[in-house]
Write a sequence for this structure.
């Protein structure tokens, strides 16, 4: 008998030969700047928990209390039996932080992108997206059925050229971009994109996953950092990075959110966010509002590490994501391994996730100076 799954062995071998094979590593204990990875105590430069809130006692107690009060699961989709007052509270908190009329919470940032993009455009429409956009934006574009053009990373001239040649052939046009590029750490040219969206009558969706809680005077994100609050944007984000919980959101005008409640399949046909995740996220947003020192400390840490790494092939970054380029995937892997032997946890990021291999350092507000010095010392 032939085995219809035999090709999977070949595919796995190809992945291994290219040094692209990945596997999970098991962490123990609470998240934080120092973690236990498979029995080893390591300084953590691999976390998206930028403000150190995922292990915060206040989030933990709020989540535990929510479980006691509302149970473990939402038990149904939001439009049927899964909507609770805590969901509304979280959505109002997100809209307040973002300075938008309304917000809608999804089960993850990935699902927020898939559902929102596929609801906004269809086969008659066109999407223009940055080549380095996150997988969820790219797959949302595919799912929508719209024609998709990718422009070179952050290249406004090429985006303009694409708009000039293609915009008129389509009904609606959606521009999609990460605000902080997750595997590089640089920012999208948002003001210029807003200008183009205005000139060419386009919707503009910006993914604030790595910017929320991190960038801008109050931590509202890249939109705030560029003083673009109030512009007609659709902002996507996650609750799983600086907000320390799980889930995703879209924030925008009341009518956009109302439309998405009626058209976003990844929101309509899935179970509401769990009570624990919901309440943890609301608590985190309140803390972000009350404790600006976390953001200040984060940026001090970023500045310190950037200064220390400046001779080291750093990719341009305006965020807490600092990437050191390494020529080949196997070199990246062995450098990451050697760092681990020195007590540093920093992953090698390789193709196909990124075009070139790199070690990615993700800075946290709760890193101590000693942690950063140890990294610099180990690299030396
Ligand atoms: N967008 C970007 C830019 C991301 O980096 C991520 C997470 N890696 C997501 C969306 C997805 O968010 P989530 O983890 O909540 O699904």
């Amino acid at each position: 008998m032939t085995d219809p799954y035999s090709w999977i062995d070949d595919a796995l071998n190809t992945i291994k030969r290219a040094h692209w094979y990945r596997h999970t590593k098991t962490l123990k204990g609470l998240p934080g700047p120092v973690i236990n990875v498979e029995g080893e105590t390591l300084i953590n430069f691999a976390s998206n928990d930028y403000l150190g809130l995922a292990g915060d006692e206040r989030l933990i107690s709020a989540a535990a209390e929510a479980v006691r009060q509302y149970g473990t699961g939402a038990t149904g989709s939001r439009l049927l039996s899964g909507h609770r007052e805590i969901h509304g509270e979280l959505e109002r908190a997100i809209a307040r932080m973002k300075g938008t009329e309304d917000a809608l919470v999804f089960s993850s940032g990935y699902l927020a992108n898939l559902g929102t993009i596929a609801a906004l455009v269809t086969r008659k429409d066109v999407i223009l997206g940055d080549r380095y956009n996150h997988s969820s934006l790219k797959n949302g574009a595919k799912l929508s059925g719209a024609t998709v053009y990718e422009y070179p990373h952050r290249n406004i001239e090429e985006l303009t050229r694409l708009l000039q040649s293609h915009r008129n052939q389509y009904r609606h046009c959606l521009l999609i971009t990460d605000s902080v590029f997750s595997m590089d750490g640089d920012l999208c040219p948002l003001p210029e994109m807003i200008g183009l969206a205005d000139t060419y009558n386009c919707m503009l969706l910006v993914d604030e996953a790595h910017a929320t809680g991190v960038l801008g005077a109050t931590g509202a994100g890249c939109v705030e950092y560029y003083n673009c609050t109030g512009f007609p944007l659709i902002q996507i984000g996650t609750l799983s990075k600086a907000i320390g919980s799980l889930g995703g959101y879209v924030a925008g005008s009341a009518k956009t959110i109302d439309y998405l409640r009626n058209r976003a399949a990844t929101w309509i046909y899935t179970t509401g966010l769990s009570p624990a995740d919901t309440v943890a996220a609301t608590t985190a947003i309140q803390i972000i509002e009350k404790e600006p020192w976390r953001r200040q400390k984060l940026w001090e840490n970023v500045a310190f590490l950037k200064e220390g790494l400046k001779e080291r092939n750093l990719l341009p970054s305006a965020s807490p994501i600092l990437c050191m380029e390494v020529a080949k995937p196997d070199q990246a892997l062995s450098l990451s391994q050697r760092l681990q032997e020195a007590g540093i946890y920093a992953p090698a990021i390789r193709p196909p996730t990124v075009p070139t291999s790199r070690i990615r350092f993700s800075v946290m507000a709760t890193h101590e100076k000693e942690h950063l010095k140890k990294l610099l010392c180990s690299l030396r």
Q: What stands out?
A: The pocket of 4'-deoxy-4'-aminopyridoxal-5'-phosphate is lined by residues 108-110, 113, 134, 136, 178, 182, 207, 209-210, 238, 240, 248 (CB under 6 Å). Residues 59 and 280 are 5 Å apart (CA to CA). The two ends are 57 Å apart (CA to CA).
